[in-house]
Amino acid sequence: MEKIKVRAHAKINLYLNVVGKREDGYHNLETVFHSIGLHDDVIISKQDTQEIIVHCGHPAVPSDSSNLAYRAAERLSDAVGGIGGVSIEIKKRIPVAAGLAGGSANAAAVFHGLNELFSLGFTQEKLMRFGAQLGADVPFCLHGGAAFATGIGDQLTRLPELSDLPLLLLNPGIEVSTAAVFKKLNFSLTKRENAGIIIRTHIENGDVLGVSEGLYNLLEVPVFAQYPEIAALKTELSTQAGCSGALMSGSGATLFALMHNCQSARRSESHFKNRVRFCTTTVTSPVGVHIEN
Ligand code: ATP
């Protein structure tokens, strides 16, 4: 095999609470991740040279060693004492710097794809440990489906996925700095302790209504304070016909809505389409990375 194509799925956070600040400057979180159908394509080819080459047509995505896909290839290559040259082409569909873990998903796809392409034989657990060295969301992107996460978001407990749940995603085109959001956090606002357990139980029971009532993201507080237009967009999204709940994903600025069905999602999509940078209907996904034949 000379080439492999891997789907790199975005994630949303159905719940995100910050439970403390760590000495290393990171924050301890409690979050519920879910993979979604929206994905980038990552095409990895063997090369005769020794180089790692990354190409992505998106202007905000670097092609040098700061690209998370590059760093994933470098990490795996180092782990086995060199894999030779590879070219990585990223077809970007996931909005960049949008709280959907696009870069982490690309890194996960490279870990998974290279492991297959070069028959490296690493277990998923081992790949997830490599992934955690690159970014907090990479282990989940390799894990996929649904998970409850603690630590910096890298300690994962599998949850049963919510299958084919219709979603509408809206990105207003505002790039929110994750570091600035965490800096402005007010810990006295953190959600009561058992809220995470409650939404987790709803997911375990496949209770979509319960999940929509338990949607929560503490990071909305500092983001909405700085960008009231995102808060207003969420209110408008929440009141669309067929919407059972809406939330901001990660540190934003993407908003998502749980919809009763794809028809109502598409109706709302046409309502927002010309006013936001990105708007799409998708569904929850059982996987984070997937090799295409
Ligand atoms: P998260 O939800 O994990 O916080 P995000 O969705 O907010 O991530 P990304 O799309 O991963 O953010 O992009 C964050 C930054 O990372 C971008 O500004 C971009 O310059 C850089 N970056 C590095 N590699 C990639 C990549 N492969 N795809 C997208 N962005 C990348």
What's the short story on this structure?
The protein has helices spanning 68-79, 102-117, 124-132, 138-143, 178-183, 195-204, 208-214, 220-226, 228-238, 262-272; strands at 3-21, 27-47, 52-56, 85-91, 146-150, 155-159, 166-171, 216-217, 243-248, 255-259, 278-283, 289-292. With 293 residues, the protein is of the alpha+beta class.
Helix and strand arrangement:
Blueprint (H helix, E strand, L loop, with lengths): L2 E19 L5 E21 L4 E5 L11 H12 L5 E7 L10 H16 L6 H9 L5 H6 L2 E5 L4 E5 L6 E6 L6 H6 L11 H10 L3 H7 L1 E2 L2 H7 L1 H11 L4 E6 L6 E5 L2 H11 L5 E6 L5 E4 L1
Parallel strand pairs: 1-8, 3-4
Antiparallel strand pairs: 1-2, 1-12, 2-4, 2-5, 5-6, 7-10, 7-11, 9-10
This protein binds adenosine-5'-triphosphate.
Please characterize this protein's 3D structure.
- There is one protein chain.
- This protein is of the alpha+beta class and 293 residues long.
- The protein folds into two domains: 3-160, 2-Layer Sandwich (Ribosomal Protein S5, domain 2), CATH 3.30.230.10; 166-283, GHMP kinase, C-terminal domain (Alpha-Beta Plaits).
- Helices cover 32% and strands 31% of the residues.
- The protein has ten helices and twelve strands.
- The protein has helices spanning 68-79, 102-117, 124-132, 138-143, 178-183, 195-204, 208-214, 220-226, 228-238, 262-272; strands spanning 3-21, 27-47, 52-56, 85-91, 146-150, 155-159, 166-171, 216-217, 243-248, 255-259, 278-283, 289-292.
- Strands 1, 2, 3, 4, 5, 6, 8 and 12 form an eight-stranded mixed beta sheet that branches. Strands 9-10-7-11 form a four-stranded antiparallel beta sheet, with helices on both faces.
- Strand 1 and strand 2 form a beta hairpin.
- Helix 1 runs parallel beside helix 2.
- The termini are close together.
- The relative contact order is 0.20.
- Adenosine-5'-triphosphate is lined by residues 60-62, 66-69, 90, 96-104, 106, 137, 178, 250-251.
- Adenosine-5'-triphosphate binds at residues 60-62, 66-69, 90, 96-104, 106, 137, 178, 250-251.
